[in-house]
Amino acid sequence: MSDHSIAIEVKCKNNPGCLFDGEDIFIEIFIINKGSSDVGYPLEFAKEKGPSVRLIDTETKNESSLSTHLADWDLKEEFTTIKPGASVSFEWVITDEELKQFGHKYVDLTVEVGLADSIRYKGEIVEFSGTGTTRIVSKDKPKEPTPQF
Fold first, then answer.
1. How far lies 102's CA from each of 22, 24, 53, 134, 144, in Å?
2. Which residues lie across from 110 on neighbouring strands?
3. What per-residue confidence (pLDDT) applies to 1?
4. Residue 28 burial by CB count (10 A; 0-12/13-18/19+): exposed, middle or buried?
5. What region does 99 belong to: left with phi over 0, alpha with psi -120 to 50, or beta?
6. Residue 23 is inside which H or E element, if any?
7. Fewer CB within 10 Å: C terminus or N terminus of the chain?
8. Domains of the chain by range and CATH?
9. Residue 3: is its pLDDT beyond 60?
């Protein structure tokens, strides 16, 4: 299955600008079926295990990978149907300590969220992997000046 049939989108819950104010950030991970056939996705397994999350510091380009959780392996066999054009989602939290780990006065991070699972597509079990990104910036970080030409 082409990875383009399913898209991953990441948004900050109740925080459209993904502005960091010193508290944990809750992200919503959307799994979107962009294809023309139903897709079975192990949503409960993904919720329990969590996504792979990589934080990339905008200033230094240093990276940090956050850990996932142990999950009930049997949940890999329970598929939630995603109709063409529809999506399912789940929440994940990135703690304030994880966001502040790079030691800068202001947080400015690219958050890369990855999912890799066996899915059901046209009656077969196939492998899927995809990523989505968002950017989290401190609410009080000064805006960078716009270049004048």
1. 14, 15, 15, 17, 20
2. 56, 135
3. 43
4. middle
5. alpha
6. none
7. C
8. 3-138 (2.60.40)
9. no
Tracing tokens 């139903």 back to the chain, one arrives at 38
Token pair for residue 140? Answer: 């009080």
pTM metric for this prediction = 0.89
What is the DSSP annotation of 88-147?
EEEEEEE-HHHHHTT--SS-EEEEEEEEEEEEEETTEEEEEEEEEEEEEEETTPPPPPPP
Percent of residues, the chain, with pLDDT higher than 70: 93
Query: Is the confidence at residue 2, as pLDDT, over 80?
Result: no
Residue 54 bridge partners (DSSP): 65, 112
Residue 33's nearest CA partner among 114, 87, 78 is 87
